[in-house]
Amino acid sequence: MPAKIIDGKAFAATVRAQVAEHVTKLKDAHGITPGLAVVLVGEDPASQVYVRSKGKQTVEVGMKSVEHKLDAETSEADLLKVIDDLNNDPEIHGILVQLPLPKHLDEDLVINSIAPEKDVDGFHISNVGLLGTGQKSMVPCTPLGCLMMLRDHHGSLSGLDAVVIGRSNIVGKPMAQLLLGDSCTVTIAHSRTKDLADVVRRADIVVAAVGRPEMVPGDWIKPGATVIDVGINRLDAPEKGDGKTKLVGDVHYESCAAVAGAITPVPGGVGPMTIACLLANTVTACCRANGLPEPEGLTA
Ligand SMILES: Nc1nc2c(c(=O)[nH]1)N[C@@H](CN(C=O)c1ccc(C(=O)N[C@@H](CCC(=O)O)C(=O)O)cc1)CN2
């Protein structure tokens, strides 16, 4: 039987609708409008697209959107000043600094200068520690989106064998923590893992987040397993015409879909969930800041 395609685009639309509903309640019952500030340093083309999309979707769900676009040579001191002002702005409940940053800026220092309660990316060391110890935190958006899709597909994840391929701070490590929190047996695999194919073959859930185009072939996948593809790799596609490109994930879609029970496509899988979860995190941060109940089902 062919794999079920987990439609991240449609799922993200339902998350945004839930966010919009909660935003309306916050405005009507409490006169509060959640506010999200996005900071972009430099002109990376992909980052510009993502930041534009974040601003547009923030407004669409009824929240306040603020964008700070700084030039590529911005000094660390100037960037930290922007963040400090946002930390102290009562109308801003969420702050995100788009990554990657230009090389001269210290990413850890910048992220850790965001007030942890406004860190809607969940990258601040305090949030990392809280998540790692099973306490209430802000949860990184991409892994949160993956978790939502997995819970929706499986119901309970308890006792399932999960392999996360990739050990980044943004996806691999928090994804593993979230799966552990849902009582999976978790393995984090990476470029030095021995017998990677055999490790992956044991998994009921495979999350591929290595950033290597189509690295996981179908014969690594256990029949019926769920495959979550976090990779977004742009490749040349001469077959589509001169100068054309295509997006592929970290798994070889056709061969994996032939064996898996369920799979996320690229594009239209995990990617759209990243921004939907950013909006969800902003509402959550706003509720926490105002001592109000958080929306159900939008956090880990
Ligand atoms: N501060 C952050 N920086 C970055 C993050 C992040 O979560 N926080 N993640 C990525 C980029 N990203 C959001 O910022 C992001 C990536 C991809 C998508 C998406 O919807 N992708 C589409 C395809 C888009 C295309 O055509 O290129 C899809 O997969 O369907 C949304 C957000 C790095 N930086």
From TrEMBL:
Record-listed E.C. numbers: 1.5.1.5, 3.5.4.9
Entries under CDD domains matching the protein: NAD_bind_m-THF_DH_Cyclohyd (cd01080)
Annotated ranges, domain Tetrahydrofolate dehydrogenase/cyclohydrolase catalytic: 6-121
HAMAP family: THF_DHG_CYH
Known partners and oligomeric status: Homodimer.
Record family assignment: Belongs to the tetrahydrofolate dehydrogenase/cyclohydrolase family.
NCBIfam families: PRK10792.1, PRK14186.1, PRK14188.1
Protein's recorded name: Bifunctional protein FolD
Species the sequence originates in: Roseobacter sinensis
